[in-house]
Amino acid sequence: MSIGETTLYNEQTRARIAWYYYVAGLTQQEISDKLGLPRARVNRIVGQLRADGSVVVDIRLPLVSCVELEERLKTAFGLKLVSVVPSADDDEQQRRMLGDAAGVVLDSLLADGQCIGVGWGRTLIASIKRLRERELKDACVVSLMGGLTKGSETNTFEVSTELARTLGADCYYVTAPIYCPSAESREILLTHSGVNEVMARAKQADIALVSCGDLTSRTKLTAINTVNEQLPQLEKDGAIGEFLGTFMGADGDPVNHPLNRKVIAMPPADLKAIPHSFLISGGLYKAEVIRAILHKGYVNCLVTDEAVARRLLSPENRPKTSNRKAAATA
Amino acid sequence: MSIGETTLYNEQTRARIAWYYYVAGLTQQEISDKLGLPRARVNRIVGQLRADGSVVVDIRLPLVSCVELEERLKTAFGLKLVSVVPSADDDEQQRRMLGDAAGVVLDSLLADGQCIGVGWGRTLIASIKRLRERELKDACVVSLMGGLTKGSETNTFEVSTELARTLGADCYYVTAPIYCPSAESREILLTHSGVNEVMARAKQADIALVSCGDLTSRTKLTAINTVNEQLPQLEKDGAIGEFLGTFMGADGDPVNHPLNRKVIAMPPADLKAIPHSFLISGGLYKAEVIRAILHKGYVNCLVTDEAVARRLLSPENRPKTSNRKAAATA
DNA sequence: GTTGCCAAAATACAAATGTATTATACTGAA
DNA sequence: TTCAGTATAATACATTTGTATTTTGGCAAC
Q1: Which residue, A295, B131, B143, B308, has fewest beta-carbon neighbours within 10 Å?
Q2: What is the pLDDT of residues A223-275, one digit of tens each?
């Protein structure tokens, strides 16, 4: 069912527990008595129901401060759709809110015959969980970037697989590493029929879902070895963050660094041809990267948090060099 | 905001708490710290959010046993729409589930320009809370029955008022008591222009929402004095329950009892002219009444619980005289 | 049969939540 | 200013929930 976890017990029991717990309002003890299950199991199932999107909550109170920010961002950056959620201190919590909001927006946008390009990141995973399951006709999901060689707990393949499953769509994978050993091997792979075709298909996508990261270890991508050891040099070369595997400077242009010549992913500029391209990212430490991406107009839809929204709208108020890694200063 | 309770604190704080608690997953303590509110208040607000429908949960796992019963009920009684929810031991819990299900069905049915007739009952109140707030154009809500003189905590007026507010519709009230002092006074009131017009408008409704009750004190209507003291005689006259203020026998026909000649409400038979007429009622002790209503074809849509559904589908298996009042047997 | 292994249940305890009670601050009238 | 009266916050405690640990009951290999 979900991405990581295995599903406890059978669907029907889970559904029944959902009703009794979330709708009728029984306690877990009452449910365990009624259904003849150990309370511990009921407890774990209840926990899973929310986590895997089997039970979804809908907040029917608009947050005016967020709605207002959404409007201002639309005009300031010429965006089609913007969703602003409250800010959180914790990354995991922030991702849940961003994912939820993204899911809500996306739910209203998906239709038969569409092609959805998808990047990578924990925020994207969160948003897929919030999507309603469907059986879209003639729809497909395309990965916008290569995979990670060292099996991170969530690889790019899993994101696209899970999205495809949720939508009942076909899935196309970029069967190549996100970073090739060399620029030459990248060229070779890109001429490979398979990779080639998938990348071409990605360009035709109707919707793209992409996240971004900064250069701290909070961002998952920079945690992988290939990137991690390059961080000092990347910073020296003016990189402030990553978007679709590409490292970019404060102006939104890719920096001149070897990794950018080894990356196998859709080039950010190609997103501009996609009708609905989403940047789903939040957390104040990513504000600078987000600003760069919006400034360059790579995307036309945004899901972010309140604090970032305010920062984006404030006059070119450079984010202070907050919790940057104390590495390369040579 | 809601029907009974007064709303704690301001909307915006409530919305923020909803996000942090239900989406981000903060504890109430963390929220109280973050927002600088006493934890007890956060706790009470969280409790209210669910209760008043500001936060709504959506279960995305179908219960096959219920789905199956829905289909069988459709064919067995020639119904347009049926929703079956799990059964509960407690009436309040059962109402929450019935209300939730009714709200979901209704949400997909409501449209501009519609006229919605509404009866009375705690189950109906529960279902209104689940409805999405809207601003329907040219829609109206009409009460299908007179009001209670002795202020019950939830009068018929409040049900229609709240539904109208939720839908952004106009509201028409039957400004008369549900039971007149005499058949004569009833006739006089029915010729009164106001009452008259509203009753006429009710006949034109596109959707009707009605509940029903048995003759025990579990049913709210029988708890009011006028009815309560008549119960022995009603049973003697063959009544098994109440529907739109009218007392009916096991065959679904109104019984010959004075109350039925004093009632100010839409006659059950008039429902047949309404495109979508809902019976929203559950609990095994109401099965007999529900069966009578369905048998007579007064309604074409049903929301009930699993146990009742099974009873309805089982061969004319008279419900055993379970918890009937030990009154009139003379 | 015995043994070892695994999975599921029972148990026990810690954290979070719900609720009542007491304390405090605020308001308006004398 | 004082004094109710009220409303809000602090506190304390009972219940419910979350999680780790122990126990039990198969089941397969020996």
Answers
A1: A295
A2: 777 778 889 899 999 999 999 999 999 999 999 999 999 999 999 999 999 99
- The model's pLDDT over A9-67, given as tens digits with 9 standing for 90+, comes to 678 999 999 999 999 999 999 999 999 999 899 999 999 999 989 999 999 999 999 99
Residue predicted with more confidence, A138 or A3? A138
CA distance B184 to B197: 19
Q: What share of chain A is helix, strand, coil (3-state, %, to 5)?
A: 45, 15, 40
Same domain, B93 and B189: yes
- Tell me the C-alpha distance between A290 and B154, whole Å: 52
Is strand C less than 7 A from the beta carbon of B29?
Answer: yes
CATH number for the domain including A29? 1.10.10.10
Domain hosting A218: range is: 64-313
The CATH number that applies at residue B159 is: 3.40.50.1360
* Token pair for B66: 């219920």
Whether residue A47 is found in the same domain as residue A68 = no
CA distance B127 to chain A (A): 12
How far: A57 CA to D25 C1' (Å)?
A: 40
B178 part of a folded domain: yes
Q: How far is the CA of B296 from the C1' of C26 (A)?
A: 62
Which chain B residue has the Cα nearest residue A67?
B12
The answer to whether A23 contacts B64, with C-beta atoms less than 8 Å apart, is: no
Judgement on whether residues A35 and A127 belong to the same structural domain of the protein: no
- Let me know if residue B4 belongs to a domain: no
Tokens of B230: 């008549």
Q: Indicate if B31 and B129 belong to the same structural domain.
A: no
Is the domain of B160 the same as that of B46?
Answer: no
Residue of chain A whose alpha carbon sits nearest to that of B55: A59
Helix or strand (DSSP H, E) at B185: helix B183-191
In the predicted model, what is the mean pLDDT of chain B?
A: 89
* B206 inside domain: yes
Q: What is the pLDDT of residues B146-167, one digit of tens each?
A: 987 665 556 788 889 999 999 9
Please write the tens of the pLDDT for every residue from B16-45: 999 999 999 999 999 999 999 988 999 999
